[in-house]
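User
Class, as today's exercise, I want you to study this protein, comparing sequence with structure tokens, and judge whether sequence predicts the tokens.
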Amino acid sequence: MPGENLSRDEARIRAELLSVDGYEVALDVRSAVGDAEEGAGPRTFRSVTTIRFRAAEPGAPTFVDLIAPSVSSITLNGRELDPAAAFDGSRITLDSVAAENVLVVDAQCAYSRTGEGLHRFVDPEDGEVYLYTQYEPADARRVFANFEQPDLKAPFRFEVTAPEGWTVWSNGEGARAEDGVWRFAETRPISTYITAVVAGPYHCETDLYERELPDGKVLRIPLGAMCRKGLARHFDADDIFLVTKQGLDFFHDHFDYPYPFGKYDQAFVPEYNLGAMENPGCVTFREEFVFRGKVTQASYERRANVILHEMAHMWFGDLVTMRWWDDLWLKESFADFMGSFSMVEATRFTNGWITFANNRKAWAYRADQLPSTHPITADIRDLEDAKLNFDGITYAKGASVLKQLVAYVGREAFLEGARRYFKRHAYGNTRLDDLLSVLEETSGRDMKAWSRSWLETSGVNSLTPEVVYGEDGRIAELALVQDGDTLRQHRVMVGLYRLDGAKLVRYASAGVDVVGARAVVPELAGAERAGLVLVNDEDLTYCKVRFDEDSLATLRAHLGDIDDPLARALAWSALWNMTRDALMPARDFVDLVLRFAGRESDIGVLQMLHAWARAALVHYAAPAWREEGSRLLAEGALDELRRAEAGTEHQLTWARFFASVAARDEDFRLLSGLLDGTEKIDGLDVDQELRWAFLEPLAAHGRADESVIAAELARDDTASGKRHEVRCLAARPSAAVKAQAWAAVVESDKLSNALVEATIAGFVQPSQRELLAPYAPKYFEAIERIWSERSIQIGMDVVRGLYPSLQDAPRTLAATDEWLAAHGPAAPALRRLVLEARDDVARAGRAQERDGSR
């Protein structure tokens, strides 16, 4: 990986020297089908790139990015360059460039099995081959020669020669010529990382979006939606098109800049590393968004959010692009915020801010407390830094800060700022100051001070209520105390709640600006005594919420009685943060889930509670209590499963949770019975996806052997079934199985990215701590080699996924510290991953100690 890196300074120097007029890229992917020659090296395709560019300093040297097994020829301004001398495997050196240049590179590039570059997937169900590209932040160079940095934008013209019977899509409109070559219209100026090619025998459905513009013209956007043929029977393209049209309406209503990239295709592709990617005109998504079985509305909401997130990128990121990855937030934070904003206002998912408060912010809070936390505007030295910066700070914290920015400057000022930003910088590149200046124009606010406080510092504040009651029992003074390394200005609502019959309802509220360490809320003086004081009611700011003792006691008794679903979600989130911060024993949080989760109406919140309860048991509970806690969770989950209304999404959610926490013989007998048909739960449809969810815990606890798993694969001999099978096989409680799984991931690079992920997930089982103990020292012996030999994505998966977080905390911390001390020169990105994993274990150790001292 080090030879493939690119530093910020190198990119800056190259951008000062060059401007790019256009690319012509010709790919021949007919080699994707058929058998590869044994021992012939990686399967390759021909890539011919013509780049037209200018240089500000004729005679200066520069370089072109390309990662390829071989280069056949390099021609610069009609002069042949020696590939052996000019190409080092990741760069082509140009010793001297002219004022105007034409570079032609003819290369053999490799198909990917890691989801980076041009990924090749063979469907085990029917043998069909599918291709797609994924480049962010810098993998277009695996497919064609280019200047791989976001600020050297240019128009692109693609042509692709594909096997007979295939269809090919790219960013521009395409047409197949008689010679079998797919030729695509030239794009507007875009960055290399958002160019795209999707090719194969995909199932495709089409639609059309139409809208009358202010000038009377009609905007027509052809819509396409694609998936593998094997998923066509599950493909609900109508719902995808519905959300797409609703999103296009919303963004046209508010951005006053028509969608600028012609068509709008959305491809759901196999073995995808990300949720989705905003390639203009050709968005790619992970195919898990094509649901093979019954799922809850939370899954449809998640898909809608991702569709709208990527659509927002057409303006924030594609039309206007950050200059370098330091300002990644200029696209990701905005898309994350606009995804929820548009979803709530334009689609059926009107409770999206509840999901945002409970789910997205949980990601942000965790990331902001890691040793690797960073300001939203980050210091990105190179591409390895950039890859790791697609994190909870850049996405969820950035989106949270933007949500409160809207409250700070006003909705219309925010949107007018966006409109001016698009028109002023269309097809260009920007930095932080470019956005702040338009927001200052539209709001009249001092955006530089706001930026220093929220964008240029790191860390999360806690807000704790201090309540003093008078002799009459009413509130004499209510103040908020802020802590944190950097004290920020917060605009918050404070809600007072009391029991009204069987409900805990808000009877008073007031907004206050918290500036500094303490702020009084004068409007609430004289209010009746509160059962619950909820800080950050309505979720206006980004902070951790704490409770006074009376409020905590009320929540222990009446958490499920909070009438407002957003307030209830905020209370759950605050209690989870207290558990992670070792302020609440893990078993107390588990008890709250067991007593109140069954009454949770919001399915997304319920799913988060299940995930948190399981994490509390696995990581934060005292070891001596784990067995009892496991029994309690299994009993409680089964009770709720049997109580849930037949056929509802709540029943399905409790069924999945029950399977994940099953711990007793009777649990495993029930799961086995549900699989073989000897047991039934009224209304529960055990479809194929649920069958796999039931089979994994059986495999992990030695209740399903290889023959049972093989029989299940025979029922579901598909790509999805293969991933489930690999996970179940690796989950079995056997030393030989673990050795085989470890070797498949660590000692070999034969597995694709999806099967690496599945193997790791099966390998790491909380019930198998002793079985996994021998791999702790092996992990530290292997990771630097893995990082140097594998792609960044696979390296990240291995380093994060196989870290021995389930082992004894003090021993793991000591081993980690020993590795860090001995590997000071290791890649900074690798050290960051290890430090983050160490912090999680240290946090778990503190929580376990708190739980044990209860």
Observations:
- The longest helix spans residues 828-852.
- Residues 391 and 713 are 35 Å apart (CA to CA).
- The two ends are 47 Å apart (CA to CA).
